[in-house]
Write a structure and sequence with these properties.
heterodimer, A: 3 domains, 15 strands, B: mainly alpha, Arc Repressor Mutant, subunit A, 3-stranded antiparallel beta sheet, 5 helices, 55% helix, globular
Chain lengths: 551, 115
């Protein structure tokens, strides 16, 4: 007995069903029903035409049926889960690619990304217990994060609170990740379009869960405090590769859950995956590129800073005043923008100030310090700033440090070796800031082995302000400025401000300023004061160095 | 005697759950089984059965699987009641019992006490 073709009718009924798999299944189911009815009608003696019409009529109002099916499938768990997964992926991209085309953008994208994850987990929460736990833990984490942002935005910065927040945050994040991934992998088939996969993906979960958690951990560690930027090309590449890999894992997982079945003759799911995959990969490449572009734009366009904004300067002025009391050169302080001055908020304990004078071409200047962390906490940090008026010269700044000799061998350098340098250019009456640079310096045996430094080419009559933020390990530290600086009767005000002096007994009596100059005079007067009081009188005073003394 | 579709409408989910509590069945089979068991009293609206089945599946009361296709038989989507569905069935049975006895009382002319 030949079967009539009900496919046109069935397709019209199922047209509105979301999801190719669901639609195909509903079509096949209705088709089977109509064919069964048709066979029965034939069996009771109806003509083929009557049997056909009776079969279609048995479905009743097909328009109503189509609407009912569409409504039922619009809110199916599988459809919700599919949306939830994509929202989760979007959240992942937003949070992990630190978009920073403009200041504060990364904060916004992070927040939206967190919202995406929260909403995604909200949609997933009914699937199983693990996903419910993931949702609850992430809800708490989200609230904590919001509270923390509110508190810190008001300038409240408490170490104990910060540590408690960080620990809680990471514990909740770990719970969320583990529960989400395990819950995700062991999801009941009701939440998948593939109704033939009756067994949960437990084996898959057991294999991949530790892996995913490990990758998430690596990302957390690597991205902590770091943004993707053009100055970290290796880290940048590694992170992009990891991100693409993880996104591919999501896509692979999605394919696993919604695996196309050839028996349905629908490869549309697979075909659909191609553009989606392309989109994801493209985003994976484009978004970091945008980050890089943003940084590049910042560098080349020379974002203008307003230096002397007379309004709303109370805190910055207070800091200026305080630093002036500590001995920092007033002119230098006035030249610094508020944003830089605010970095010196904690500079209350000790400052080491000085003023240099140079005339001629200086090959190298070395500031030689000893830092001893009396409490052995390795927590001494220092900020320094100085101003140079440079003219047509190349400038290279290198940082290096020595370990103590054997008598101090118990003191080891800390791992914090980053130097934060921001440079302001003065052109006419305006100042421009280049992007701060994180400059990492390593252990070197001697000055000549300093492999690189920060290159800067000064153009005519530029005023350059270096503001540096060091985290100082226990060590003897030499700051060298070498490879040529041309000073023309140059006054060089500088200051070094030590922040966490309670942990660091400074400069154990040995402070030296060396200059290697081929000619002309150079002098440096310096003093160290603590809480506004000069101490270490032995080294206070004016020291003149003749070039010959150092050759 | 056949029951009007409007009257039977509210009880379709109950009938479906009840029939499926005996064994897994596919849509057409459910309709025929209900007809036979009710001695042709209940003639379900065949079209609306499927949205109800899919809805019950969404709610977790039913689960489904496809039979393998053979040369003599087409693939069929079988529905099976879940433990959650069994609980729901019991709940709906109680509701129906209360409802039907109330209807019977009203129709049987139970004495109405007014104050």
């Amino acid at each position: 007995m030949s079967q009539p073709d009900f496919s046109g009718i069935v397709k019209n009924i199922c047209y509105g069903i979301k999801g190719n798999r669901s639609r195909a299944e509903a079509e096949e189911e209705l088709m089977g029903h109509l064919e069964d009815t048709y066979e029965r009608n034939i069996a009771i003696g109806k003509s083929e035409e009557d049997a056909f019409n009776a079969s279609v009529a048995s479905l009743g109002n097909t328009k109503l049926l189509a609407q009912q099916l569409e409504a039922v499938h619009a809110h199916s768990p599988a459809a919700q889960m599919k949306s939830a997964i994509w929202i989760f992926v979007i959240g992942f991209v937003l949070q992990k690619f630190h978009l920073n085309l403009f200041d504060g953008m990364s904060l916004i994208t992070d927040f939206i990304g967190m919202l995406c994850w929260l909403f995604s987990l909200y949609l997933m929460r009914k699937a199983n217990k693990n996903l419910r736990i993931a949702y609850y833990s992430y809800s708490i984490l989200f609230l904590l994060s919001v509270v923390n942002n509110c508190i810190t935005s008001y300038g409240i910065n408490n170490d104990i609170f910060n540590y408690a927040y960080l620990i809680t945050y990471h514990i909740l994040l770990a719970i969320m990740l583990i529960c989400a991934i395990s819950g995700f992998m062991t999801m009941d088939k009701t939440y998948c379009y593939d109704s033939e996969k009756r067994k949960p993906h437990l084996g898959f979960a057991l294999v991949y869960m530790p892996f995913e958690v490990a990758v998430a951990g690596v990302i957390s560690v690597m991205s902590y405090g770091e943004s993707l930027n053009s100055e970290n090309p290796i880290l940048f590449i590694i992170m992009v590769v990891i991100y693409i890999f993880i996104i591919a894992q999501f896509v692979r997982l999605k394919n696993r859950l919604w695996d196309a079945d050839a028996r349905y003759g629908i490869d549309s799911l697979s075909r659909k995956n191609v553009p989606i995959l392309c989109m994801v990969v493209t985003l994976s490449i484009i978004l970091p590129m945008c980050c890089m572009y943003g940084y590049a734009v910042k560098d080349t366009d020379k974002t203008q800073l307003v230096i002397h904004d007379t309004d709303n300067q109370t805190e910055a002025d207070a800091i200026r005043e305080h630093m002036a009391e500590l001995g920092v050169d007033a002119e230098t302080l006035n030249m610094l923008p508020d944003s830089e001055i605010m970095n010196y908020k904690d500079a209350v304990n000790m400052t080491f100030c000085g003023e240099g004078y140079a005339d001629g071409y200086v090959d190298c200047m070395i500031f030689d310090f000893y830092f001893i962390d009396e409490n052995d906490k390795n927590e001494c940090s220092m900020r320094s700033l100085y101003v140079l008026n440079l003219s047509d010269c190349k400038y290279r700044m290198g940082f290096y440090y020595f370990n103590f000799d054997d008598s101090y061998s118990h003191i080891v350098p800390s791992d914090e070796k980053d130097v934060y340098v921001s440079i302001l250019h003065k052109q006419g009456n305006k100042y421009y800031a280049k992007k701060p640079i994180n400059y990492s310096f390593d252990l070197f045996d001697n000055l000549s082995s300093v492999p690189n430094g920060f290159d800067f080419k000064a153009e005519n009559d530029q005023t350059v302000i270096f503001a540096m933020n060091y985290n100082i390990p226990d060590c003897r530290m030499n700051f060298s400025m070498n490879q040529g600086v041309l000073f023309v009767s140059q006054r060089i005000p500088f200051s070094f401000v030590f922040n966490t002096v309670e942990q660091a007994a400074i400069v154990s009596g040995n402070y030296n300023f060396h200059s290697y100059s081929n000619h002309n005079d150079m002098f440096m007067k310096s003093y160290i004061c603590r809480d506004g009081t000069i101490f270490e009188p032995g080294i206070v005073g004016q020291t003149y160095y003749q070039a010959d003394e150092f050759y | 005697m056949k029951i009007s579709k409007e009257l039977a409408k509210g009880s379709t989910a109950l009938l479906v759950l009840s029939v499926l509590s005996r064994k897994p069945m596919y849509g057409y089979q459910i309709i025929r089984t209900v007809e036979v068991m009710s001695e042709d009293v209940f003639q379900m609206n065949e079209g609306t059965l499927y949205p109800i089945l899919h809805s019950l599946e969404n709610e977790g009361f039913l689960t489904s699987y496809w039979s393998e296709k053979t040369e003599s038989a087409r693939r069929r989507k079988y529905y099976e009641i879940t433990p959650q569905g069994l609980k729901e069935l019991e709940s709906q049975k109680q509701e129906w019992s209360v409802y039907s006895s109330a209807v019977a009382k009203v129709l049987g002319g139970a004495k109405v006490v007014t104050t």
